[in-house]
Amino acid sequence: MTSSSRTAPIGVTGLGVMGANIARNLARHGHAVAVYNRSPQRTAELVSNHGRDGTFLAAGTIEEFVSTLEKPRRALIMVQAGAATDAVIEQLAGAMEHGDIIIDGGNSLYTDTRRREAELRERGIHFVGCGISGGEEGALEGPSIMPGGSAEAYEAVGPLLESISAHVDGTPCCAHIGPDGAGHYVKMVHNGIEYADMQLIGEAFQLMTGVLGYSPARCAEVFAEWNRGVLESYLIEITAEVLAQVDDATGRPLVEMILDATGQKGTGRWTVKSALDLGVPVTGIAEAVFARAVSGSRDLRAAATGLAGGELATTLGEALPGVDEQSFLDDIHAALYASKVVAYAQGFNQLTAGSEEYEWSLRPGELATIWRGGCIIRAQFLGRIREAYDADPALPSLLLDPYFRDAVEGSIGSWRRVVAAAALMGVPVPGFGSALAYYDSVRADRLPAALLQGLRDFFGAHTYERIDKPGHFHTLWGGDRSETTAG
Ligand SMILES: NC(=O)C1=CN([C@@H]2O[C@H](COP(=O)(O)OP(=O)(O)OC[C@H]3O[C@@H](n4cnc5c(N)ncnc54)[C@H](OP(=O)(O)O)[C@@H]3O)[C@@H](O)[C@H]2O)C=CC1
Ligand SMILES: O=C(CO)[C@H](O)[C@H](O)COP(=O)(O)O
User: Fold this and answer.
1) Pairing of strands 167-168, 74-77
2) CA 312, CA 292: separation in Å to the nearest integer?
3) Half-sphere exposure (CA, 13 Å, Cβ side) for 348?
4) Fewest beta carbons less than 10 Å away: which of 30, 169, 183, 379?
5) Which phi and psi angles does 144 have, rounded to 5°?
């Protein structure tokens, strides 16, 4: 795309960590970029520090920023989700014209995106709610981009966004996701899966230290080794880096000096809230969100520190007689992989349910394709997920795909040993444990839900269904206990 030096095909406003690097990425790809930031020094710093990346057209006001854009104007917002995004949208829309396009690249809540898209459509302005993943480095080098909105808007912004996205095997990690909030919904679930993946990695680390007595440096070596196999992924790669880091001030492993309370900005929590509304069991993501909440409950944890753990096994040999160190390490690897398959299977089921609820026609295989590169959960594994959905676009669960089925069935013994050893030694593994419980639940012939139905009918006349005939039934619990047919 060419442009004169005084106009730009796209502008970026919000030049913080992400916005500045996306603007630089655009410039490096030969697109002139209009840039504007509320605090002018950020704009000045970007242009003076990185002017050699390409053509930046610095604007001092939002009106000047908009006037620099070629028609239809394309403005990418990279500011905090919520009120800040609404404020910037309003400023832009006030200066824009019919047919112009506002792209929100922040981590906005998909329901806000649906509202904004509808409001702006009424005003003749296209709104593209666009998930962007890759962090600071990905924004510069090539993120995974998940744009929602109308097909017409995608025609106008897609080529630009695809040009700056990561590419895997020549395919851009960017595709039109679907209407209104689809892009932000997909990014939200991506982040939910990211939470689950990180929690599982954290539990693997805790098992290595708590059961095998490994130092962070030894764990770093293990993760680096694992990154050469089926677990190969950005998160495993950076786990090895973080664990190998030594604190300059103390000479100790940095991870031992970091407060063990995980922060969150909200996307994982939103994922779980949506899953609860849709009735989709995303236990891996939920456990990860709650594990962060437990870690941050400093007062509770301080008060509970003295609680007894019971008669704990103190060595692997006591917990699992006959299991040696190397085979338990292999078990952790297998359990991590199986639990990860469950977390992704659940996340993809949520995407399917969200798609049905909002009529987005999401294509799970395409989502796996654009997550193969650029984003935080990028991994070899996503190529397998794409293959699974290519083979069967209506797959009810990744657990039923032949490749993943074999992988998980081959891990079951390890998975059970790991969860058992963790329980016997008092190492908390909510992610591993809940993933195994989910697996055992979905494959079970019978669940205790029948008893729960009986109880609900007993105290609330909520009725139950029977396995031998259709209809809804109620037992006269307070009377002669005969069964009646409910309406
Ligand atoms: N950091 C990350 O790894 C990722 C972040 N995101 C999302 O991208 C968005 C930006 O994140 P990030 O770059 O990290 O954030 P930063 O905190 O680094 O930058 C925030 C930017 O928003 C601007 N801003 C804030 N409030 C307003 C307002 N009311 N009006 C105008 N401008 C405002 C700030 O301007 P000023 O300089 O004047 O304060 C600044 O330029 C967020 O939605 C975030 O969730 C998405 C993927 C990854
Ligand atoms: O979107 C992202 C990566 O994909 C951001 O890094 C996000 O902020 C991570 O979420 P949280 O801060 O809640 O851990």
Assistant:
1) unpaired
2) 25
3) 28
4) 169
5) -95, 130
4 pLDDT higher than 60? no
Among residues 117, 162, 187, 203, the one annotated as catalytic is 187
d(C-alpha 334, C-alpha 428), whole Å: 18
Residue tagged 């139905």 (tokens):
453
CB distance 78 to ligand 1 below 6 Å: yes
Q: Which atom of ligand 1 is nearest to the CA of 81?
A: 43
Average pLDDT value for residue range 54-82? 97
Question: Which residues are within 8 A (CB) of 321 and not within 5 positions of it... i.e. 6 or more apart?
Answer: none
For position 60, what pLDDT does the model report?
A: 97
Mutation to probe ligand 2, out of 136, 195, 267 (largest number of atoms < 8 A from CB): 267
Q: Is 71 a catalytic residue?
A: no
Asked if pLDDT for residue 215 goes beyond 90, the answer is yes
Kindly name the residue from 117, 194, 203, 287 that is annotated as catalytic. Answer: 194
Residues near 391 by Cβ (< 8 Å), separated by ≥ 6?
A: 401
CB atoms inside a 10 Å sphere around CB 7: 15
Q: Does the pLDDT of residue 2 top 50, yes or no? A: no
How many angstroms does the Cα of residue 108 sit away from the middle of ligand 1? Answer: 11
The answer, yes or no, to whether residue 3 has pLDDT greater than 80, is no
Question: Is ipTM > 0.95 here?
Answer: yes
Cα–ligand 2 centroid distance for 146 (angstroms): 15
The number of the ligand 1 atom at minimal distance from the alpha carbon of 14 is 41
Q: Tokens at residue 325, please?
A: 């160190």
CA distances to 20, 21, 36 from 42, in Å = 8, 12, 9
Nearest to 177 by CA among 350, 353, 351: 351
Residues in the chain: 487
Substitution site in 190, 194, 270, 295 for ligand 2 pocket (most atoms within 8 Å of beta carbon): 194
Residue 199: what are its φ and ψ, rounded to 5°?
-60, -45
Torsion of CA 353, 358, 364, 368, to 10 degrees: -110
194 is catalytic: yes
Q: What is the pTM of this model?
A: 0.96
